[in-house]
Structures are given as structure tokens and as C-alpha cells.
Design brief:
Elements (H helix, E strand, L loop, with lengths): L1 E8 L4 H12 L4 E7 L4 E6 L6 H10 L3 E2 L9 H33 L3 H16 L1
């Protein structure tokens, strides 16, 4: 038996840790698997003759988390967290722009018809400038 510990990025709660544990335990050759949400780390006892470390990492990646295996220098927990924050910020910016556009139409719909024509004239004038 071989015992290995490695960090996991992307867990949000203890239920995530339980999901990862269940996935690891379902792999043939894995004797025990424990995932600590607090330290964001998995400890797995497995038979290297039956399964490989890369198989464990792929199983974790397949369910939406990032396993950082030994020898992988490009993926550090800090780099992955920063990348996730950048993606979330870009997504939030997109949502803000869409909500401003939708809110503008709702705002225009609340004016009397005469006022809407003036506002639309102003907006079209800005476009042609």
C-alpha cells in the first residue's frame, strides 16, 4: 500500500470534501481516503499495482475540483485561487453590464410616452456623435 497526501483546490464546504472522499473510495485499489476541508488536503491509501496517482487526480478533476499532484509546479494552490478569483470577477462584470442594460429598459418603460421619445432621441443623438 502507498499513502499519499496532496492539496485540493475548489472546495467550498464540508459537503465538497465528502463528495471527493466518496469519489476516491469508489476507485478500485483505494483502501482509505480522507479529505480535510480545513486544510484543503486529501490523504489516500491505495495499491499502486491497481491504480495510479494520476488516476486519483483525474477522478477529482472530473468532479470539478483541482488536485495538485507531486511534481506539478504550474499548479499551486495560490495560482489556482487567483485564477478562480479572476474568472469570478470577469463573470460579475458581465452580470453588472447586463443588469445595467436591462435596468435601462425598465427605467425607460416607467416614463410617460412623450418622455420616452425625448430620452430615446437623446440616446440616439449620443450614438451618432
Amino acid at each position: 500500500m502507498s499513502k499519499v497526501s496532496f492539496p485540493i483546490v475548489g472546495m467550498h464546504c464540508s459537503s465538497c470534501a465528502k463528495n471527493i472522499e466518496n469519489k476516491l473510495r469508489s476507485i478500485s485499489g483505494v483502501e482509505t481516503a480522507t479529505v480535510n476541508y480545513g486544510s484543503e488536503e486529501a490523504t489516500v491509501n491505495f495499491d499502486p499495482k491497481i491504480t495510479h496517482l494520476q488516476t486519483l487526480g483525474k477522478a477529482i478533476n472530473d468532479i470539478g475540483y483541482q488536485a495538485i499532484l507531486e511534481g506539478d509546479t504550474t499548479k499551486t494552490p495560490q495560482n489556482l485561487k487567483e485564477e478562480a478569483k479572476r474568472k469570478e470577477l470577469a463573470h460579475l462584470k458581465t452580470l453588472v453590464v447586463l443588469s445595467v442594460i436591462i435596468s435601462t429598459f425598465v427605467f425607460l418603460g416607467s416614463f410617460p410616452e412623450r418622455m420616452v421619445q425625448r430620452i430615446l432621441f437623446f440616446l440616439v443623438t449620443l450614438i451618432f456623435l
